[in-house]
Amino acid sequence: NPIFVEDITRGEEKQPISLLNENGTSELPKFLYISKNTVYKNAHVNFSLARIGDENCCLNCSGNCLSAPANCACTSETRGDFAYTAAGLLDEKFLRESIAIIRRKNDKKHLFYCENCPLENRLVNGNRNHKRKRSVKPCKGHLMRKFIKECWAKCGCSLNCGNRVVQRGITVKLQVFQASEGKGWGVRTLEALEKGTFVCEYVGEVVTNQELDERNEEFSGDRHTYPVLLDADWASERFLKDEEALCLDATKFGNVARFINHRCYDANLIEIPVEIETPDHHYYHVAFFTTRKVEVNEELNWDYGIDFSDETHPIKAFDCKCGSFFCSMKSQS
């Protein structure tokens, strides 16, 4: 029998998110819904107004920054232009350039190579009670993405400012459902979405790269969500300390984004790094926007950025069933 849950968020989101288990055979997911990222233990994330200098906010703005004649300080990340339109959508040019970077993710001009990569030099061969050895391998490259800087608490504009989109949370109608082709759970929209619409952000526990490795060792037999690495601007640092190489793990604590499936190349969502309450890029929000118009009941998907041939990743890559003509697994078969 079908199972219907009216709101999996327990009221955490302003917009309820339903779950439909159409044949009643799939096991309901076991996790706790959270609407905002939470630091697990050692991740170096400092939310402080004192850390945000005057050059990192628009103290002199008022009302809606998008309608102000003067340049807003919060457009520094986007070369003086706002990333959002007056309708609250992602700017067409910004979206087009962001999609181009994703689709050319193997182009070396979009990649940064660490001198001492936290991923490739992770601690291996041991456990917490034994001395570990480091595996020293060359960096495989990190995709440098375009950032959005939203206005925040230290800015002079109002809460209704058009440069405050992601921080307002989910406003579209979403549903978790059983996806086709053996993909497990998925997420679909219950309303038509315009191109450039903010859908949700990826929410989970903020963990360090080392903490993620330790979790994978301890719970090696358990099923994990695919972790999201916050590496979009590692180029600003020559070397990251362990507490600065951050990931988002939504296995035990997360939001609706943990159910969004992967699609190679032509996904209808794109992830955009969004800076809100911190002045640096060690920590940021991973926000999903539509890459095109999306129809009612259409499944949502995004490109996880997985190298399916990488056997050293801390989470084993799954067998891709995205169905895209450009599927990476097709090229390997």
UniProtKB/TrEMBL annotation:
Its main location: nucleus. It holds the Pfam family SET. Keywords: Chromosome. Residues 172-305 form the SET domain. The keyword Amino-acid biosynthesis does not apply. This is SET domain-containing protein. Residues 61-169 form the Pre-SET domain. It is found in: Chromosome. GO terms for cellular component: chromosome; nucleus. PROSITE patterns: PRE_SET, SET. InterPro entries: Pre-SET_dom, SET_dom, SET_dom_sf. SUPFAM superfamilies: SET domain. GO terms for molecular function: histone methyltransferase activity; zinc ion binding.
